[in-house]
Design a protein that fits this description.
The structure holds two protein chains of two kinds. By secondary structure, chain A is mostly helical. Chain A folds into two domains: about 50-220, MetI-like fold (Orthogonal Bundle), CATH 1.10.3720.10; about 225-250. Chain A contains eleven helices and no strands. Chain A has helices spanning about 1-25, 40-45, 50-80, 90-100, 105-115, 125-145, 150-160, 165-190, 195-200, 210-220, 225-250. Chain B is globular and about 75 Å long. Chain B is of the alpha+beta class. The longest helix of chain B is centred in the middle third of the chain and has 18 residues, at about 170-185. The chains are: A mainly alpha, B alpha+beta. The interface of A and B includes residues 150, 161, 164 and 170 of A.
Chain lengths: ~250, ~350
């Protein structure tokens, strides 16, 4: 059984890991195993503004999406977890909708909508479209951590002389901080690796990294893609490792 | 009301519009008094506490603290210290920072707040634990921090909501003494909520017994124990023998008691009993091994003996009713199931409750 498990894990993980050796290849196109080794594609990636600019674009967009998502999701999560009101079920469903609707449908919808209001191929346009996709994920994460929050902590803060906003700032936010951070991180990642909607709504100056990668592989199997993949993989692995170490240190 | 520091009048609260969680609850407390709300869960004791703290709004009635009406005053402006059942310490702050919190909210300069918080931690015996986070403290220590935090800002009132429920027995008794000591030292008017009658007896200047959203009795611990007003109070506080009684001669104080036959009771109690009908309360320790002068006697056919060391509980039958008698540990030596033990009780050791 354990052997079978390893086999499945290998089968799933191998394609993820195969990009790492390819990124250190010297070959002119994507090839595995690499015929010879070198760092020329790393050089190509960092030197070429056609790669660095989309990377910067993606970082800008993902950061803005994370911020905007939190601004929208925080009050929504508090309202839906803590209060009863008419149409609560409908609001919940509406918030989760972008998760169920196929991305291509959303992409076409945003393409039409953003071109009507003149935001197609602009930063605000991409940010808005990505935020819609990030909201359900961030909402789920934040709702889960909010449900586990002991409200007597807030009552205690009030009884000790904190106004409601002070109780929120000094007690609720710090205690829920890991939940907020996780929600924002999910929103960031959701935007950073989103491709379908980006292909439709981003333009020449707002091109995102996944879109650039998609275009690149369509035209030529450029090994720089393997470099980008390896770098992304490395960043994510580092983040996960840091989170694990922090949890262990925190006890 | 003269001398009333905390005054509660005619509180009514309903959550569903039908059943009343609080049904015209009125009580008062003098400055520095230690009052316990005692009752089973759902009796209204915690709801009353939450109304005083401002977390629940009553449908009707008023709460006054130091002469000031609390109507419309939000919790954070009441200046009332609350210790919650689960302590509700802020997990991201150290013990010292927890205790500093109410001072910082009152804009006390940080250095001064730290000094005062440290003094308060010292008072609760945690001088060396200021830098620990709540998760690094034991239950009893967390309890002390919560107490220090609720007291450090000189609250008008201290409210404690079943604060000892989560602690084991020895620690609970230790904390009872500790709370009493601190309460006396600071002379802070205190309301303590519990369902544990022995805790209520040990701590309180006065006990208010709640049941079904109403106050059953409001009196000193001894008064509650010796002269409960209702059968509920008699059963809830302490161990009891409750026997139907009918007054046959009010003047002489003679009652026909279920299973015990004609018995002498206190005439002044017999005379105020409505319709001459009621219930006789005999605390187990009122049934003593017969003395020559005991006016009421019986012989207990012992069925079971429970030894506590310092005392023993005899459970047996007399005249067709089951009775419980608590006698000294020494006197109980040699008594076993099947023994016939002569016992007696004095009229002033019994209490008549109106039917």
């Amino acid at each position: 059984m354990i052997a079978l498990g390893w086999l499945v894990a290998m089968f799933v993980a191998a394609p993820l890991l195969v990009v790492i050796p390819i990124s250190f290849s010297d070959a002119v196109s994507l090839e595995f195993p690499p015929p010879s080794w070198g760092l020329r594609y790393y050089q190509a990636y960092f030197a070429d503004p056609r790669w660095t600019q989309p990377t910067i674009n993606s970082l800008i967009i993902a950061t803005a999406v994370a911020a905007l998502t939190m601004v929208l999701v925080t009050p929504a999560a508090f309202a839906l977890v803590r209060h009863r009101f008419g149409g609560k079920g409908a609001v919940n469903l509406l918030l989760m909708l972008p998760m169920v609707v196929p991305h291509i449908v959303i992409a076409i919808g945003y393409y039409a909508f953003l071109s009507d209001i003149g935001l197609l191929q602009s930063f605000p346009g991409v940010i808005l479209a990505h935020t819609a996709l990030s909201v359900p994920v961030a909402f789920l994460v934040l709702t889960a951590s909010l449900k586990g929050f002991d409200r007597t902590l807030e009552r205690a803060a009030l009884s000790l002389g904190a106004a409601p906003w002070q109780a929120f700032l000094h007690v609720t936010v710090p205690v829920l901080w890991p939940g907020f951070a996780a929600a924002a991180l999910f929103a960031f990642v959701q935007s950073f690796d989103e491709t379908v909607v980006a292909i439709f709504v981003s333009g020449a100056t707002t091109e995102t990294l996944p879109r650039r990668m998609f275009d690149s592989i369509r035209m030529q199997a450029d090994p720089v893609i393997a470099v980008v993949s390896t770098l992304l993989f490395g960043v994510v692995a580092l983040l996960a490792l840091a989170a694990m170490l922090r949890r262990r240190a925190g006890g | 009301m003269d001398g009333a520091y905390l005054e509660i009048r005619d509180l009514v609260k309903s959550y569903d519009g039908k059943t009343r969680a609080l049904d015209r609850v009125s009580l008062s407390a003098r400055r520095g008094e230690f009052v316990t709300f005692l009752g089973p869960s759902g009796s209204g004791k915690t709801t009353t506490l939450m109304v005083i703290a401002g977390f629940e709004a009553p449908d009707a009635g008023l709460v006054r603290v130091a002469g000031q009406s609390m109507a419309g005053v939000p919790p954070h402006k009441r200046g009332i210290g609350v210790v919650f059942q689960n302590y509700a310490l802020f997990p991201h702050r150290t013990a010292l920072q927890n205790v500093m919190f109410p001072l910082l909210m009152r804009k006390v300069p940080r250095a001064q707040a730290a000094r005062k918080a440290a003094e308060m931690l010292d008072l609760v015996g945690l001088a060396d634990f200021g830098n620990r986070h709540p998760r690094q403290l034991s239950g009893g220590q967390q309890q002390r921090v919560a107490l220090a935090r609720a007291l450090v800002f000189d609250p008008t009132l201290l409210l404690l909501d079943e604060p000892l429920g989560a602690l084991d027995k020895n620690l609970r008794e230790q904390m009872q003494l500790e709370i009493k000591r601190i309460q006396r030292a600071l002379h802070v008017t205190t309301v303590f909520v519990t369902h544990d009658q022995s805790e209520a007896m040990a701590l309180s200047d006065r006990i208010v017994v709640f049941e079904g959203g109403r106050i059953q009795q409001d009196a000193t611990p001894l008064e509650i124990y010796n002269r409960p007003r209702t059968e509920f109070v008699a059963r809830f506080v302490g161990d009891s023998n409750l026997l139907r009684a009918r007054i046959t001669d009010p003047g002489a104080g003679i009652a026909e008691v279920e299973g015990l036959g004609p018995s002498r009771v206190l005439p002044q109690q017999a005379q105020v009993l409505p319709n001459g009908q009621g219930t006789l309360l005999l605390r187990p320790e009122a049934l003593a091994p017969a003395e020559a002068d005991a006016p009421n006697r019986l012989v207990l056919a012992v069925e079971e003996v429970v030894h506590f060391g310092d005392s023993a509980l005899l459970i047996g039958r007399a005249g067709g009713v089951t009775l419980r008698a608590r006698i000294g540990g020494r006197a109980a030596q040699g008594i076993g199931a099947g023994a016939q033990v002569p016992l007696g009780w004095r009229p002033d050791a019994a209490h008549l409750i109106g039917a």
